[in-house]
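Hi L.,

As promised, DUF488 domain-containing protein:
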Amino acid sequence: MSKIRLYTIGFTKKSAEDFFEALKKMKIKTLIDIRLNNQSQLAGFSKGKDLPYFLKEICSCAYIHLPEWAPTKEILDSYKKKQSTWETYEKQFRFLLSQRDIISEASQMDLGNACLLCSEPTADKCHRRLVAEHLADNIDGLSIWHI
């Protein structure tokens, strides 16, 4: 089976120029926004209302928002408020992904040169890495590339 490259990117600590140039360089076809809330005041150029326009005009890229690929508010708040550890967050979120059966939804999509979007600047402690790993564990030929 041919390799499917699935990318991930976070927008925090990136200028609009760096963000969109990275997407263009990797020839991203579809940006999959997996943030629970894509309307945050802190989102800047990545706000849900503006981002589809920027992606289309700058990168000729499609946009999809899949908040069901994000953690629940409860799981996220518990971790952010330091009421749970990263290990607990990761375990809860991985269980949630399997319960939501995102593989069925993903199998209907063209993930080749798609990119998962979240806010964290790096993927190490971000749910986009966990989503990408879950997909790679269940879809033959899928490889993960963090931008």
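The chain has a mean pLDDT of 92.

Thanks again for sending the construct details.

K.
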